[in-house]
């Protein structure tokens, strides 16, 4: 009678494991395994003590058996595993972004050096205009008298009266 009861229990466990596999396991949408929960510690201990039964359920149906004392530990380890996978995926994304930034940084440095060189050229040109060229024109213009009327000078040069001396257009508030 005991052996018949064991055969019925094994058959029922295998049927339940098959049902779990068929209904709930659909990788990659789900995990590749399921959990068959046995609600009584004594029942779990009897099933766990049966030689090869847990391994067969895992191998054939991809279903793990858990009892009241093992369920919390199993769920905690699964949660930690999923968190580890999520962290690894995020780390991979970060690595990809850093690789792209490193690649772009080379281009950025090249363009920055080019801009610095151009700014140096502009600075030297402005220094020449302000310094050497301005002094040369001032020396030549010293012997020429200025017009007494700035408006007359502006008219002769074709410069509007409302423009300030620095060449910037005057605002309406000036």
Describe what you observe in this structure.
This protein has about 170 residues and is mainly alpha-helical. Helices cover about 70% and strands about 5% of the residues. The protein contains five helices and two strands. The radius of gyration is 43 Å and the shape is rod-shaped. The model has no long low-confidence stretch (mean pLDDT about 85).
Sum this structure up briefly:
The chain is mainly alpha-helical. The chain has helices spanning 2-24, 41-49, 53-61, 68-141, 150-157, and strands at 34-37, 63-66. It contains five helices and two strands.
Give the helices and strands, then pairings.
Elements: H1 2-24, E1 34-37, H2 41-49, H3 53-61, E2 63-66, H4 68-141, H5 150-157
Parallel strand pairs: 1-2
Main sheet specs: 2 strands, parallel
Oligomer: single chain
Q: Uncertain spans, ≥5 residues at pLDDT below 50?
A: none
Count of helical segments? 5
Order of helices and strands: HEHHEHH
- Strand coverage percent: under 5%
Structural class, from secondary structure content?
Answer: mainly alpha
Number of strands: 2
Read across the widest sheet, the strand sequence of neighbours is 1-2
**Share of helix, binned:** over 70%
Supply Rg: 43 Å
N/C terminus separation? 112 Å
């Amino acid at each position: 009678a005991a052996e018949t009861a064991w055969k019925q229990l094994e058959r029922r466990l295998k049927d339940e494991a098959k049902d779990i596999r068929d209904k709930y396991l659909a990788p990659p949408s789900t995990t590749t395994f399921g959990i068959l929960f046995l609600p009584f510690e004594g029942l779990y201990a009897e099933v766990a003590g049966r030689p090869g039964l847990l391994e067969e359920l895992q191998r054939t149906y991809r279903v793990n058996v858990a009892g009241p004392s093992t369920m919390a530990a199993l769920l905690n380890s699964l949660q930690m595993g999923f968190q580890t996978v999520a962290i690894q995926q995020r780390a991979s994304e970060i690595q990809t972004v850093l690789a792209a930034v490193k690649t772009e940084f080379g281009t950025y440095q090249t363009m920055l050096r080019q801009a610095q060189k151009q700014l140096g050229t502009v600075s030297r040109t402005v220094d020449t205009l302000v310094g050497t060229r301005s002094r040369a024109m001032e020396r030549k213009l010293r012997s020429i008298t200025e017009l007494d009327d700035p408006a007359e000078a502006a008219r002769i040069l074709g410069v509007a009266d409302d423009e300030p001396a620095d060449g910037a257009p005057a605002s309406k508030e000036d």
